[in-house]
Task: structure prediction
Amino acid sequence: MSHIKGIAASSGIAIAKVYRLEAPDLSYEKRTIDVPENEVKRLHEALDISKSELEKIKEHTKKSLGDEHAEIFSAHLLVLSDPELIQPIEDKIKSDNVNAEAALEETANMFIDLFKNMDNEYMRERAADIQDVTKRVMAHLIGVTFPDPALINEEVVIVADDLTPSDTAQLNKQFVKGFTTDIGGRTSHSAIMARSLEIPAVVGTKEITGKAQKGTMIIVDGIDGDVIVDPSEQDLDKYRDKMARFEEQKQEWAKLKDEATVTSEGTHVELAANIGTPEDVQGVLDNGGEGVGLYRTEFLYMGKNQLPTEEEQFDAYKSVLEQMGDKPVVVRTLDIGGDKELDYLELPKELNPFLGFRAIRLCLERDDIFRTQLRALLRASVHGNLKIMFPMIATLEEFREAKNILNEEKLKLQEEGKDVSENIEVGIMVEIPSTAMIARRFAKEVDFFSIGTNDLIQYTMAADRMNERVSYLYQPYNPAILNLINNVIEAAHAEGKWAGMCGEMAGDSIAIPILLGLGLDEFSMSATSILPARTQLKDLSKEEMASVKDTLLSMGTADEVVAFIKEKTNQ
Ligand code: PEP
Ligand code: MG
Result:
């Protein structure tokens, strides 16, 4: 048995067998063969299995993420049935007398090189498709398992070095009971997605892949950040008990689903949810969310080989707005970069992606991408209560430029005779210290602020949010962070604007009383945190928390803040 400590990333307990998610070893030996027909037969068997797997993944993706994400698999299926690719592989087997593996790799590489260097974007995307599917066919030829999280059909806990956001999107909750990784932090995007999918997760364990063999029993405790490999009977009993208590607690929380969020003196605060796809909206409504405080639109752009069209985006935005009715929906414009990459944009690798060409920086330079998104949003605006916000704003000029582009697109649409709502609030995420420092100047020009603490903390503390070795510096309660947040809220209120928070801090039980006292208007969090937060707020007094604001802001360390809040709120 081994006990490993990590970072609690998504609450709940999972007990199941280990499933190792790792890139397979695709090395093979090039051989001269005597009977080409046998190799052609092997090739076709590998193609057939690959096709049937891709069909299943496509169906699964369609159900969990919608049609547009499933499209990439249609493209892959086309590649596998394309005689212009398959015939030359067969020819090569026969003319060169080589095994199917060698013929596949050499032919695929020839096409990949050819397409990759073409000017035509469509052809470059085909290169990426061929690269993806040949790996799968190769794995079947060699006889190694090609890990497909979407195809798991028994109860497992996934163990991996890291999970990409698109790996996470493929997980089927019915079978994947939990996951645990070597790297990552509470605010890495796979952790955030685990919370929307309600899959228990412990990340940043540093060593789990070295300790957990395929098929061994494992416990993932996403409440306290513990992982137990090969547990004893005693451990199993203990954690089954903990799991049952967690389920009971969830039943308690559920009682407040249709209640308003009010403090002990009856003051209302808004509890909204963060979402990544239109499919997440159901979870928001099931958990009693009063709005969407952050729609991360990046996922529309990920897991595919090309930019989403205006129409695809319009459909997604409209769907979210309609499902939410008259409740507010804050849509964030594209925030790609950092740990969210888009291979098809072919951006040069950067040494510090979190400090680099991301989010609004990219959108202002690639305004073709930005304008398409804004048009889709503006057209969707008549279907609900839309608010638009720009990510990673570091200067007033960036905000002004983004807003000008938005206004230009609005005017163009109106000239084309399209309906656009006249009541769209336009705000910014405050996630860079420069903006938090002069929030007073921003407050005169924006309609609202949403504080993105995941990034605000990493930039203020100079600690990469993905790097588990510096995760001790992810300190939401550090007085430096509290002072910046206070500055932003005061600035908003001085101009009659509202201030929300959509970083993970907004759903944290130690932070909630502090933020209430600082006067935060809207708390946006993972849907599953809403009911616990509503339960907690019911017993908190806003006035009382406001009366200790100055004490908290003048403290020296995060530990002092935590000790004070625990004592004050009996946690
Ligand atoms: C944040 O930075 O707090 C935030 C909500 O944005 P993201 O986590 O998507 O970077
Ligand atoms: Mg951010």
Observations:
- The domain at 36-142 is CATH 1.10.274.10 (Enzyme I; Chain A, domain 2).
- Residues 187, 294, 296, 335, 431, 452-455, 502-503 surround phosphoenolpyruvate (ligand 1) (CB under 6 Å).
- The chain has a mean pLDDT of 93.
- The chain has three domains: 2-22+148-238, 36-142, 262-569.
